[in-house]
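Margin note from the TA: students keep mixing up input and output lines. Inputs are the sequences; the output is the structure of the whole complex. Example:
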Amino acid sequence: MIKTIERYCACISPSGSEDEIREQIIGDIKNHATSWEVDETGNLTVFKKGAKASGLKILFSAHMDEIGFMIKYISDEGYLYFDLIGGIDRRVVAGRRVVIGGNRITGVIASKAIHLQKPDEKGICVPISEMYIDIGCTDKESASGCVSVGDIAVFKPNFEHFGDGLIKSKAIDDRFGCAVLVELIKRELPYDTYFAFVTCEEVGTDGAKQVGYRLKPDIAVVFESTTAGDIADAPKSRYACSLRSGPVLSHMDGGTIYDKALLQYIKNVAEENNIEYQIKNVIAGGNDSSAYQKSGIGTRVAVISAPTRYIHSANNVVAETDLESIRELASALLERGFINA
Amino acid sequence: MLDLIKKFTAAFSVTGEETALRSVIEKEAAIYADGISTDPMGNLIVYKKGENSGKKLMIAAHMDEIGFVVTYIEDNGFIRVSNLGGINSISSSYHTVRFNNGTPGVLVFDSGTKPEDIKANKLFVDIGARSAKEAGKKIKIGDTCALTPVFQKLMNNRFTAKAFDDRIGCAVALDSLRNAKKTKYDTYYVFTVQEEVGCRGSKTASFSIMPDYAVALDVTTAGDVPGEKNQPVSLGKGAAIKIKDNSVICSKVIVDRLTALAEKHKIKYQYEILTAGGTDTSSMQLAGAGCDAGCISIPTRYIHTPMETIDFSDVKACSSLLTALTEEGME
Amino acid sequence: MDRIYEIACELSSIPAVSGREDMGLHRLAELCGDYFDRYELTPVGSFIGRIDCGRIGAKTLLFDAHFDEVGFFVSEICEGGFLKVVNIGGIDPRILSASEVLIYGKRTITGVFTSKPPHLQEPGESEKPIKLTDLAVDTGYLKEQLSEIVSIGTPVAYKSPVERLQGDYITGKSFDDRICIAAILRALEFLKEKELPVNIAVQFSGGEEIGYKGAATASYSINPDFAVVLDVTNAYVPDAPDYRKDIKIGGGGSISYSAKTSRKLTDKTVAVARKNGIPYQLFAEPNRTGTNAGAVQTSRGGIPTVLISVPLKNMHTANEVVSLLDVYNVAKLISELAADGGIDL
């Protein structure tokens, strides 16, 4: 699964331009899915028939899109001014290497040398509107020859194993989630299950709104990355969650109050299968579950997350063991089929 | 060594006026030296011939302490001062002082000064004089003063005193000179001047010696006190082998050799990085064509206050480590 | 210029943080030792190479570029496998959050600078100054494992492979000042075909980023008659002061007029550039150049020095940008200066 995650993380697919990752996923599942379809806005839904029907419409969901950038303006000197796709802290954008568009043009987000900064500028990150990408062109004409306004860009792919069983890469949020779902689709399942690979989570859970409306699932479980605050100088009471402590379950976040019975069901299944899990201890953030919960007549929702450090940056950090536990938990849930959840 | 430490911290030796302490050290060192001299800047150079006279090792500890210099005498007899080196205005205030000629006084700041504004230009010394004329009988512009010596034993063989920076370094150097059964290289124990105003003395001493290897002895901040962050050096954890400070990045060969010697002789040690301040190490490293230089530091709390505090076990560790280096050299 | 790109890629990847140039000196010697008749490595972290022209009484011309790069030292090993670091040389903390580094301990490991998650931030924090003391490096190990690999003082440097951009631009780390080492090596290649009227001494000095240390000691030991110092300079970018408009990337090497260098030697350099049709730019910086020039010029009894700089963007970050054409032109210029030989002052 880790090799699949590496391949998925290398795709250039920010919100609204998910073609590349979607093609990869389709390539992986087409010989295993019972049926699949892509809707008008690019969401991919997959149906896998199980050994029997459970009477429930179960949906597992992950989002295909990643945060990124869009070229807004090409200056006379050939520099590319840009805007953000999704929410990114300016302090992880400054000075980064990026890759632009289908031609994969390399660029550098320029950073004013420390020697040129005025005293009151020092240490303060400039706003995104004052940043620009340097691709090595010296005028507007030559730059316009390689890129155009509206082209998308992402942090340069950089997947790597490091430390003791950790992985760092751009876009682990939420390519790992996609990889987990793909693994499950490849297996024989006891009950009929739907899988959704949605678009545009990062700009407002849009894909999930669309899929929720069409599919109308009874139960939706979202697989996501969630911010782990277990870094130096952070107080333990405010970690939210930690690496190497298993899947993160949540009772509430900024967008959803999760179905209490469903949460208990998932905890029970985890305990019965000796899968260590943790409960997120900070009320913050949001994900596609808020969209599913409120679509149509409503859906019971839960989220299973991978604790991820430095989320929404060029270097998401996760522990391999956590990702494997999530796959195990997901598989155990499908075995039980959410009967009497 | 305790006898040396007491003697040294009691002597007067402010930056630029190190004569008194130099005499004390010279007396102590003479019987162990093969040669002893004072250079034009006032550095005391104690020379010991080595078994292998092909190389030179220079050891530097500075004799000077921070203090004050008289800039002006007010009509009513109060004496205005400026700082010599990086004094701590707040901790020096409301303390007794002693001038180079022995005159006592108290160091105070202008009444009504806000804590954040207390600096050298707000300080003055009261010697009890009633007029400039009376004060002038004892003190003139250019005279220097330092805080009155303090020396106190605490629990766990820890001591607090004024001017452990760098009398403790001088004591370690002299203790090592006394204990060394031999010196592998021609070794120069240099007691330097004017370190507190920019490591000036060590520049000329280094140029005249042109060492192959050099080790300074100075204090470093122990961070094991309330409120201190990002400073892992602690009292009781042994001799601190310097990695870098603001004036120098110590040569790796010296750091590695000191580590190896400490391991071999089971001497407790730790590593230190000082993010502010400099030492004589830099002068020695950059003399002429340059040389391998490092520093053995004595972990010290409350540096540049009247109550610098050390753990005697760390001091002994520093002395043992220095002796091992002088006896066994670099290989 | 492909030749320069090759050399630049190799040089950029050698780790050598100021004060710990020993980490990379041997690799540097392997890379360029063959260019010289003899070479030595100095205690202050410099590489000194000599080429004799064979003429009795010939003068010695020194080329200097600094080998050290900015980086960090580990200052504390914390719980959770995080490292606190101090900067070595001028580092802008604004570009560090969530960036990658390599940690050169008992073995080399990867690290990621932390970035504070939103829920731990105060409102408006992203607009406040960032301090290095607020950041840490995540190594992915536990504290006990980590203590086996690193210790206080372990050097840390940016992780950033060299890459081509459009045209002849390249991006990577430590072009300050490895790109000038590349220029010097390329110049030596030009000079292989020529008769040398002077002896050449080359110093790839250590300790520039922390105060011109290596240049002072290396020049002292070489004692040349004249010197050319090569460093990089901030090229014009939007929002830089107007006077930098004349230092464009692609405009050729920037020759400095300064009280810290020799005006006569500088005039001579400009004349050589014009005579050979080599593009150049001019920069005025009378009081301080921020390079090895001052240290070399005040070495011993004084060594007339000229300072030539390669224009560069994003200095001291993991993604510095230069033009290969500028590097080529600087290499050409200093080789013509050496070949011209008749530096009669």
